[in-house]
């Protein structure tokens, strides 16, 4: 990797129910989610493993966003759920 280039970002795709949840977000919530998705695309290992599954659970406490996802063998990050994109009240299902 040449010095002027950063790490390769993984492709990120959303599946149901994440797409349904995404449609319910405000512009501000979508912006916060976008920042979290960029962080995950740069480093898919950010989230903690969910025991007994291939899922990862990532919580960005600064932006109050929680994302459930998994990474494929080809390094595609698949977002399967948005467990919390909320104002400052904590995490709740969207």
Outline of the structure:
With 94 residues, the chain is of the alpha+beta class.
Overall, the morphology is globular
**Major sheet: size, sense and barrel closure?**
5 strands, mixed
Instruction: Determine the strand fraction and express it as a percent band.
Output: 25-35%
Rounded radius of gyration (Å): 13 Å
What is the chain-wise order of helices and strands? EHHEEEE
Helix content: 10-25%
User: What's the β-strand tally?
Assistant: 5
Description:
With 94 residues, the protein is an alpha+beta fold. The protein has 2 helices and 5 strands, in the order E-H-H-E-E-E-E. Strands 1-5-4-3-2 form a 5-stranded mixed sheet. It is globular and about 30 Å long.
List the helices and strands and how they pair.
Layout: E1 12-14, H1 18-23, H2 27-42, E2 48-49, E3 56-60, E4 65-71, E5 77-85
Parallel strand pairs: 1-5
Antiparallel strand pairs: 2-3, 3-4, 4-5
What descriptors fit this protein?
94 residues, alpha+beta, 5-stranded mixed sheet, disordered C terminus
